[in-house]
Design goal:
This protein folds into three domains: 102 residues, Trypsin-like serine proteases (Thrombin, subunit H), CATH 2.40.10; 87 residues, Trypsin-like serine proteases (Thrombin, subunit H); 82 residues, PDZ domain (Pdz3 Domain, Roll), CATH 2.30.42.10. The chain is built from eight helices and 20 strands.
Length: 300
């Protein structure tokens, strides 16, 4: 058998299709829907499966399907809202775990591949190279100091393993970005493995200081950061922030970009009052927001 085909089959055998059902009452349902699908990777002998958080956020029922078509119930193990990784588990011994390594062992220009579920027992792969390991910030109050940017587009569902040429997992595929030369973003896998004991024990990163959260979606435009959406019932909406607001200042600090806005918010703890100045209807207005905790908000 060709070595490349053998390697793909070995990696595929450690992957699953995740099917998650979310109650319509959960705060994420209005944004992400009540029926979600993704890719997961078995990463240890205990049956732990690594994926991305948005797939299982709020799920009250999770099932996984392997490449043989076998379906198993799964339980939520841990969620890390700051990095975007999540872990679920199935009974030990069902599937062989994939080998995993720290992503700091790879660098720009290195060949990689990903292998994603396209539903049920089917998988699809794509090859490319690492474009960079640059920082990344997104529109939902999220940033990574170091993200893996890959040249190829993910051909399947989110949560797929990003692997080096030896079939070792280095990251969890999160987003198709469509940027020229940088098509896919992966979360470095060490965000789970370096804190695995803590995540398994508490279901979250309790050792990391809690940071304030507003529940807003922001777009960066030339010279301005605009509120593009608000999570229903989250602190931003209930305090009077509005879609279309141009955020000018946080605590009297001028906002020059989206990441700087987030960093200003994250200097606060949940429960702190945050002063936001926005440009609305031709004038500057002040909005006082009591910062929330995303983990608590989405845990209901």
């Amino acid at each position: 058998m060709d070595g490349h085909i053998r390697l793909l089959r070995e990696v595929a055998a450690s992957t699953v299709t995740i099917s998650a059902e979310i109650p319509s009452s959960h705060p994420s349902a209005s944004v992400l829907g009540t029926s979600r699908a993704g890719t997961g990777t078995v990463v240890d002998e205990a049956g732990t499966i690594l994926t991305v958080n948005y797939i299982v956020l709020g799920a009250n029922r999770v099932r996984v399907t392997d490449t043989a078509g076998n379906t198993y119930p799964a339980q939520l193990v841990a969620q890390d809202f700051a990095t975007g990784v999540a872990a679920i588990s199935i009974d030990p011994g069902r599937l062989a775990p994939l080998r995993c390594i720290d992503s700091h062992s790879v660098s720009a220009g290195q060949d990689v591949f990903l292998l994603a579920s396209v539903g049920g027992a089917d998988r699809r792969s794509a090859c490319g190279f690492i474009v960079s390991v640059d920082p990344f910030d997104a529109y939902w109050e999220y940033s990574l100091e170091r993200a893996i940017w890959v040249s190829t587009i993910n051909p399947g569902l989110g949560g797929a393993p990003l692997c080096d040429t030896h079939g070792r997992m280095i990251g969890v595929v999160s987003l198709n970005l469509g940027s020229i030369g940088r098509a896919t973003l992966a979360i470095p896998s060490e965000h789970f493995f370096e804190h695995a004991d803590e995540l398994r024990r508490y279901g979250r990163r309790v050792s990391r200081p809690a940071r304030a959260w507003l529940g807003m979606f922001c777009y960066s435009l030339p010279g301005r950061t605009v509120v593009a959406g608000l999570v229903p019932g989250a602190p931003g909406e209930t305090s009077g922030l509005a879609v279309g607001d141009i955020i000018v200042r946080v605590d009297e600090q001028q906002v020059t970009g989206r990441l700087q806005l987030y960093q200003g918010i994250w200097q606060h703890k949940p429960g702190d009052t945050i002063e936001i100045k926005v440009f609305r209807n031709g004038r500057i207005e002040k909005v006082l927001i009591t910062g929330g905790d995303a983990e608590d908000f989405f845990a209901v």
